[in-house]
C-alpha cells in the first residue's frame, strides 16, 4: 500500500514539473512586449527598464525558468503587478473561499443525486425514473453561466430569499453552490442509478432478500454501501470539474475565491497573478486526483494495485 | 427504445442547427447588426418574436446568426483536434517504447488542467478573439482523440495477423488503413460528437467571460454576457441565447449517447 | 457468518457524508461571523475601486472623492465654482504673487496631533518634488517658495500672477508631515487626515470602511460608520440596493433601470445637472487622426441626440465644449458638429479616404476604440461603432478593466477612446488638458494636442487676474478648440443618486462630490 502511494507520488513529480513549465511559458506567449502591454508604449524608458528587471525579462530564458521553478517550490510566486502584494498571499486569502464553495456544491450534488438515483434504480422505468434521467441530461447540458443568472432572477430578485452576491452570511452560499453543483448532481444521479442497478441484481442482494431482510434494510444496509463505491470515485474526480466551473460561478456571484481572482487578474493584465492562480488550481486538481486514487484503492481492496 | 428516440431528437436538433447556420441570411428576419435604438430591450412582440437586445437588434436574427459561430468554432476546433490527436496518438501507439511513455506523460500534464482553465489562461494571454478560442480548445482537445487512437493501435498491434503482416514486410500505412482505421472510426465519431458539445460550451463560456467573440459579433456566449446586466428588466436577453446553447449541447449529447449505443463502443 | 463475495469492508459512504458535513458546518460557522458595527453602517456602492487615497497622488474620481472627506484643503469650492476658505481662517494678497494664509487653530488630525503650517508646507513641498511623481505637480509649479511665518501662518510666493491658484489649492487635502513621512508610499493605502471621516480599513477592489471623526472642527458627522463597497457588476449593485444591503448609489446606473427603481417604494431618486463632460478623445500623433478632416468626419457621423434620448434616457445634455454652461467662462458660440452623414462622407473623400468600390459603404478606414468595461460605455461604443460603419469607418472596440484602461489612456496608448472629465471648475484646467507642456507623462494632454496660439492664450489666462479679461481669453480658446477638435464633445451627464428612503441629508453636487456625507443620517425604523 505504502509502495503504491510512493509510486504514485513519484509519477506526480514529472506532471507537476510539466504543469509548472506550461504555466511559465504562458507569460512568454504574450504577443508583443509584455512590458509594453503592462505600462503602455509611451511609458518612460526608465519605468520600462525597471519593470523588465523586476520581471526578469532581460535574463536568458533558462535562467528565468530556473528562477520560476525555484520560487514556485519555495512558495514564492512573484509579486502581483496590480496590487503590489506577493501573489501567494493573495491566493491563500481567497483559496479557502473556493474550497468552501466547491465542498458546498459537492454536498448539494450529493443531497440531490443520492435520493434520486436510488429511487430511480429501485423503481426502474417508473415515471420518476424517466423524468429524473431526462432532467439529468438537462442538467449536464445547462451552462452554469445561464443557470446562475436564472436562479438569481427567480430566487434573489423575484422571491428575495437569497442575497445576490458576495459572501455575507450563510445564505449567500446557496445559489452559487446550487449553480456549481447542478451539473455534478446530474452526472451523479445517472451514476448512482446505474451503480445501484448493477448492485441490486447481484447475488448477495438476492440472498439478503431471500433471508427475509426488510426491503429498507436490503437497500440501505447492503446495496447502497456497495453501490456508492464507484460514485465516491466520480465525486473525487469531478472535483476538478468543479474547480473549473467555480471560475465562472464565482464571477457570476462575485464570490471572493481564486476563480474570481483569476478573472480579475486577467482583466488587469496582472500576469504574475494569472500564472499563480492557474498553477494553484492545477496543482489542487492533481492532488485531488491523487487522493481520490489512493482513497479508492483503500475503499475497495479488490482493486489491483499496479 | 427510449434511447433511440433521444438520438433521433439529437439528430434533428443538430440538423436544425446546421441548417440555420448555412441558411442564416434567408431565415433571419432582420440583419443581426441592424440597430434600432428606439426598440432597445423591448420584450418579445409580433415583429420581434424573441424580443430586442440592448441596441434594438432583433434577438431571433442574432441567435440564428449565432449558430454560425457555434458551428464554425465547433467544426474547426474538433477537426483540428482530431487531426492533431490522431497523428500524435498513432505515432505514440505505433512506435511504442519511450516515445509512448513520453506521450503518456504529456497527456497527464495536459489533463492536469481542469476543464477550461487552460483555455481561459491561453485566451487571456493571447488576446480575446474567436481564433484564439479555437486554438485554446484544440490545445486541450486533442488528448481524448489521441488516447483512443493509441489505445486501439496498441490493442491491434499485438494481434497475430498484424505480426504476420509486418513479418511479410507489409507497408505500415496499409496496415493502418485496413486494420486500424475501421476500428477507431466508431469511438472517434462518438468522441467527436461529444467534443462538438464541449467546444460550443467552451466558446460560450469564454465569450461570456469576455475572452472570446468581441462586439458586435453575435456569439451566444457574449449575448449571455450582455444579458446579465438587464436581468432585472429584460430577462429575455438572457433566456433565449442560454436556451439555444442548452438545446444544442443537449442535441449533441443525445446524438453521442445514441451513437455510442448503436456502434456498441466500450468506453475506456 | 460467512462474508459472501461482494460484501466489502472499507470506509462506508456514511463516513464520507459525515466528513463532508463537518466541513460544510465549519464553512457555515465561518460565514456566520459578521461584525456588528458594519450592520449599522451607511453602505455606498462603487462601480470601481479607488486606487490611492493620498491627495497628492489621487487622480481617478473615486479616489479623489474619498480624499475630500478624509482630508481638508486650504480652500474649498462653492456651488458657483468660487474658492472659499476651509482650513484657512483668513488670507491676504499683499501683491499679485504673494499669498499669506492664516490657518485656523484647533484642527486635529485623526491621530490627535494638531494641524500646523508645517504640514501645509510639507504637503506642497512633496507634491512639487519631482522624485515624488505627483500627477498634480503641474497645478502648483508656479510656487517659488513656501515660508512658515509662525505655527499657524504660511506665505506662498509665486513666480508670476496665477489666477487659478486658490482654486487649485482646493484639490489638495493637507497631509500630516510626521505620519506621511513615516508611511511613505503606503500613505495612499493608509491615509490619515483631518476630515470628517477617518479610514478604518482599505481593501482595494473590495471595500473601504470609514468611521466618523468626533473631533472634526466643523462638527461631528451624523453617521458613525460608512462602508464603500466595490461592486463592479451593475445588476448586482442595483439588486443589493433594492434589497437594502446598499443604501446609496451615485451614477453608474443603467438608465434602462430607472422605471424599475422608480417602482420600488423603498427607494428615492435625486438628480442634478452635472459638470461631468463625456467626450471622444483622439490620439493626434496617429497618422490618420492627425488629419483634421478625418476628425471632423467622425464628429459629423455620431448621432448624439439619439444616444442621449434612447440609451441615456434623457439623462444627459449634448455638449459643445469642456466647460459646462454653468461655468462663468462658458462660451456658447462655438463650432458645433451636427449629425450629418453626407458631410462626413465628403470630408473623408477630401481627406483621401475614398470608398474602395466606389459606391455604398465600403470600408475606408480602420480604427481601434478603447473603453472601460463599464456596460453603458461599451453599449455607447457599439452604437458609435455602428454609426461610423455607415460612413465606412470600421471600429474595433477594445474594452479593458478600468485600471488597465486608465493607464493606457494616461500613457497615450490608443487611437480613439471615450472618457469623462469630472469636476471641471476653473477654466485653467485647460492648461492641464490642452497645453503642449501637459503631454504625458507630465500632464493630461493625452492626445498630444499642440497649438501654439492656444498655448499662449492659456498662459495669458492664468496670469490675468481680471475676470472679464480672463473671460475673453477663454472664450477665444473654446472657439479654437471647437475648430481643432482634439475631442469630440459628447454630452454633460446628469448626476443621478438613488438611495434608500431612510437616508436623509444627502446633497447632490455637480461633480459628484460626496461632501454632504458628513450630514447624512439613516432613519432607524
Number of helices of chain A: 12
Major sheet details of chain A: none
Q: Uncertain segments of chain B of ≥5 residues (pLDDT<50)? A: none
The N- to C-terminal Cα distance of chain A equals: 10 Å
Proportion of strand residues of chain B: under 5%
Beta-strand fraction estimate of chain A = under 5%
Binned, the helix content of chain B reads over 70%
The residue fraction in helices of chain A comes out at over 70%
Descriptive report:
- The complex is a heterotrimer of chains A (306), B (268) and C (525).
- With 306 residues, chain A is mainly α.
- Chain A contains twelve helices and no strands.
- Chain A is globular.
- The N and C termini of chain A lie close together (10 Å).
- Chain B has ten helices and no strands.
- With 525 residues, chain C is an alpha+beta fold.
- Chain C is built from 17 helices and 19 strands.
- Chain C has helices spanning 13-32, 36-39, 61-70, 117-128, 137-140, 165-169, 177-183, 234-242, 258-263, 292-301, 304-311, 341-351, 375-389, 402-410, 429-434, 452-463, 467-484; strands at residues 42-46, 75-77, 83-85, 88-95, 98-103, 143-150, 153-158, 197-203, 207-212, 225-230, 248-250, 267-282, 316-318, 365-372, 393-400, 416-421, 487-500, 503-504, 521-522.
- Chain C is globular and about 75 Å long.
- Mean pLDDT of chain C is 86; it is low at 1-11 and 29-37.
Amino acid at each position: 500500500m505504502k509502495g503504491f502511494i510512493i509510486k504514485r507520488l513519484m509519477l506526480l513529480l514529472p506532471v507537476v514539473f510539466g504543469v509548472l513549465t506550461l504555466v511559465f511559458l504562458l507569460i512568454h506567449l504574450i504577443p508583443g512586449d509584455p512590458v509594453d502591454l503592462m505600462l503602455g508604449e509611451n511609458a518612460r524608458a526608465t519605468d520600462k527598464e525597471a519593470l523588465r528587471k523586476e520581471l526578469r525579462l532581460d535574463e536568458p530564458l533558462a535562467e528565468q525558468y530556473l528562477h520560476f521553478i525555484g520560487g514556485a517550490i519555495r512558495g514564492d510566486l512573484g509579486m502581483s503587478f496590480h496590487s503590489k502584494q506577493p501573489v501567494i498571499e493573495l491566493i491563500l486569502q481567497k483559496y479557502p473561499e473556493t474550497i468552501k464553495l466547491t465542498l458546498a456544491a459537492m454536498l448539494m450534488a450529493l443531497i440531490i443525486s443520492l435520493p434520486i438515483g436510488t429511487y430511480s434504480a429501485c423503481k426502474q422505468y417508473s415515471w420518476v425514473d424517466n423524468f429524473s434521467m431526462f432532467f439529468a441530461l438537462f442538467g449536464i447540458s445547462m451552462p452554469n453561466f445561464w443557470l446562475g443568472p436564472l436562479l438569481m432572477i427567480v430566487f434573489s430578485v423575484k422571491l428575495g430569499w437569497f442575497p445576490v452576491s458576495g459572501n455575507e452570511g450563510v445564505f449567500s452560499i446557496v445559489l452559487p453552490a446550487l449553480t456549481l453543483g447542478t451539473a455534478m448532481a446530474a452526472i451523479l444521479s445517472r451514476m448512482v442509478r446505474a451503480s445501484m442497478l448493477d448492485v441490486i441484481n447481484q447475488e448477495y442482494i438476492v440472498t439478503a432478500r431471500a433471508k427475509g431482510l426488510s426491503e429498507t434494510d436490503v437497500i440501505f444496509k447492503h446495496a447502497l454501501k456497495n453501490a456508492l463505491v464507484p460514485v465516491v470515485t466520480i465525486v473525487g474526480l469531478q472535483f476538478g470539474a468543479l474547480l473549473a466551473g467555480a471560475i465562472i460561478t464565482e464571477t457570476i456571484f462575485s464570490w471572493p475565491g481564486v476563480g474570481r481572482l483569476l478573472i480579475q487578474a486577467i482583466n488587469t493584465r496582472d500576469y504574475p497573478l494569472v500564472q499563480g492562480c492557474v498553477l494553484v488550481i492545477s496543482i489542487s486538481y492533481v492532488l485531488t486526483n491523487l487522493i481520490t486514487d489512493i482513497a479508492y484503492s483503500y475503499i475497495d481492496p479488490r482493486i489491483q494495485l499496479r | 427504445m427510449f434511447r433511440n428516440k433521444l438520438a433521433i431528437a439529437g439528430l434533428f436538433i443538430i440538423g436544425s442547427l446546421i441548417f440555420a447556420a448555412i441558411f442564416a441570411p434567408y431565415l433571419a428576419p432582420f440583419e443581426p447588426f441592424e440597430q434600432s435604438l428606439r426598440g432597445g430591450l423591448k420584450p418579445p412582440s409580433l415583429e420581434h418574436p424573441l424580443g430586442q437586445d440592448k441596441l434594438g437588434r432583433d434577438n431571433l436574427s442574432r441567435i440564428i446568426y449565432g449558430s454560425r459561430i457555434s458551428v464554425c468554432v465547433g467544426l474547426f476546433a474538433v477537426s483540428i483536434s482530431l487531426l492533431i490527436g490522431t497523428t500524435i496518438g498513432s505515432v505514440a501507439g505505433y512506435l511504442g517504447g519511450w516515445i509512448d511513455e513520453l506521450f503518456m506523460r504529456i497527456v497527464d500534464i495536459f489533463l492536469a488542467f481542469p476543464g477550461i482553465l487552460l483555455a481561459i489562461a491561453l485566451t487571456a494571454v493571447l488576446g480575446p478573439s474567436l481564433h484564439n478560442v479555437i486554438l485554446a480548445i484544440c490545445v486541450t482537445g486533442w488528448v481524448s482523440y489521441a488516447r483512443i487512437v493509441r489505445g486501439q493501435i496498441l490493442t491491434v498491434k499485438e494481434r497475430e495477423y498484424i505480426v504476420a503482416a509486418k513479418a511479410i514486410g507489409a507497408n505500415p500505412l496499409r496496415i493502418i488503413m485496413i486494420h486500424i482505421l475501421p476500428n477507431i472510426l466508431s469511438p472517434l465519431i462518438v468522441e467527436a460528437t461529444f467534443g462538438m458539445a464541449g467546444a460550443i460550451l467552451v466558446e460560450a463560456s469564454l465569450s461570456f467571460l469576455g475572452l472570446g467573440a468581441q462586439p458586435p459579433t453575435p456569439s451566444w456566449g457574449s449575448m449571455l454576457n450582455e444579458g446579465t446586466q438587464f436581468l432585472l428588466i429584460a430577462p429575455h436577453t438572457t433566456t433565449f441565447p442560454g436556451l439555444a446553447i442548452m438545446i444544442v449541447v443537449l442535441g449533441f449529447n443525445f446524438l453521442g449517447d445514441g451513437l455510442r449505443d448503436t456502434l456498441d463502443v466500450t468506453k475506456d | 457468518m460467512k462474508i459472501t463475495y461482494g460484501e466489502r469492508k472499507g470506509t462506508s459512504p456514511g463516513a464520507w457524508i459525515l466528513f463532508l458535513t463537518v466541513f460544510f458546518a465549519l464553512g457555515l460557522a465561518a460565514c456566520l461571523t459578521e461584525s456588528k458595527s458594519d450592520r449599522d453602517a451607511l453602505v455606498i456602492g462603487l462601480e470601481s475601486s479607488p486606487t490611492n487615497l493620498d491627495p497628492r497622488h489621487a487622480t481617478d474620481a473615486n479616489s479623489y472623492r474619498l480624499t475630500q472627506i478624509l482630508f481638508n484643503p486650504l480652500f474649498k469650492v462653492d456651488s458657483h465654482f468660487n474658492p472659499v476658505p476651509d482650513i484657512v481662517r483668513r488670507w491676504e494678497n499683499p501683491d499679485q504673487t504673494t499669498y499669506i494664509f492664516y490657518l485656523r487653530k484647533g484642527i486635529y488630525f485623526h491621530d490627535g496631533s494638531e494641524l500646523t503650517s508645517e504640514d501645509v508646507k510639507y504637503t506642497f513641498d512633496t507634491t512639487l518634488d519631482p522624485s515624488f511623481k505627483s500627477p498634480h505637480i503641474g497645478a502648483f509649479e508656479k510656487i517659488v517658495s513656501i515660508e512658515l511665518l509662525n505655527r499657524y501662518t504660511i506665505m506662498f510666493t509665486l513666480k508670476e500672477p496665477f489666477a487659478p491658484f486658490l482654486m487649485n489649492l482646493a484639490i489638495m487635502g493637507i497631509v500630516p508631515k510626521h505620519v506621511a513621512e513615516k508611511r511613505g508610499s503606503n500613505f495612499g493605502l493608509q491615509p490619515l487626515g483631518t476630515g470628517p471621516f477617518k479610514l478604518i480599513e482599505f481593501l482595494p477592489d473590495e471595500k473601504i470602511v470609514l468611521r466618523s471623526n468626533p473631533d472634526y472642527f466643523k462638527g461631528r458627522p451624523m453617521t458613525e460608520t460608512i462602508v464603500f463597497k466595490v461592486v463592479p457588476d451593475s445588476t448586482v449593485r442595483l439588486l443589493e440596493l433594492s434589497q437594502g444591503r446598499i443604501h446609496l448609489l451615485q451614477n453608474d446606473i443603467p438608465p434602462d433601470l430607472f422605471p424599475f427603481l422608480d417602482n420600488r417604494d423603498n427607494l428615492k431618486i435625486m438628480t442634478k445637472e452635472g459638470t461631468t463632460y463625456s467626450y471622444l478623445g483622439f490620439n493626434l500623433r496617429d497618422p490618420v487622426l492627425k488629419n483634421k478632416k478625418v476628425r471632423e468626419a467622425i464628429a459629423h457621423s455620431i448621432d448624439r441626440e439619439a444616444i442621449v434620448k434612447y440609451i441615456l434616457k434623457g439623462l444627459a445634455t449634448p455638449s459643445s465644449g469642456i466647460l459646462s454652461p454653468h461655468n462663468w467662462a462658458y462660451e456658447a458660440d462655438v463650432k458645433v458638429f451636427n449629425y450629418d452623414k453626407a458631410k462626413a462622407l465628403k470630408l473623408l473623400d477630401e481627406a483621401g479616404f475614398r470608398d474602395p468600390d466606389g459606391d455604398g459603404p465600403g470600408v475606408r478606414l480602420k480604427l481601434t476604440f478603447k473603453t472601460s468595461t463599464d456596460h453603458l460605455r461599451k453599449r455607447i461604443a457599439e452604437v458609435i461603432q455602428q454609426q461610423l460603419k455607415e460612413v465606412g469607418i470600421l471600429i474595433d472596440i477594445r474594452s479593458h478593466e478600468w485600471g488597465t484602461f486608465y493607464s493606457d489612456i494616461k500613457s497615450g496608448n490608443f487611437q480613439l477612446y471615450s472618457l469623462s472629465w469630472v469636476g471641471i471648475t476653473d477654466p485653467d484646467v485647460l492648461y492641464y488638458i490642452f497645453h503642449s507642456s501637459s503631454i504625458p507623462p507630465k500632464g493630461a494632454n493625452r492626445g498630444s494636442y499642440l497649438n501654439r496660439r492656444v498655448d499662449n492664450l492659456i498662459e495669458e489666462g492664468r496670469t490675468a487676474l481680471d475676470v472679464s479679461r480672463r473671460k475673453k481669453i477663454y472664450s477665444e480658446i473654446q472657439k479654437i478648440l471647437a475648430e481643432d477638435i482634439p475631442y469630440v464633445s459628447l454630452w454633460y451627464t446628469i448626476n443621478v443618486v438613488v438611495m434608500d428612503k431612510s437616508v436623509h441629508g444627502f446633497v447632490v453636487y455637480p461633480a459628484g462630490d460626496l461632501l454632504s456625507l458628513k450630514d447624512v443620517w439613516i432613519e432607524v425604523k
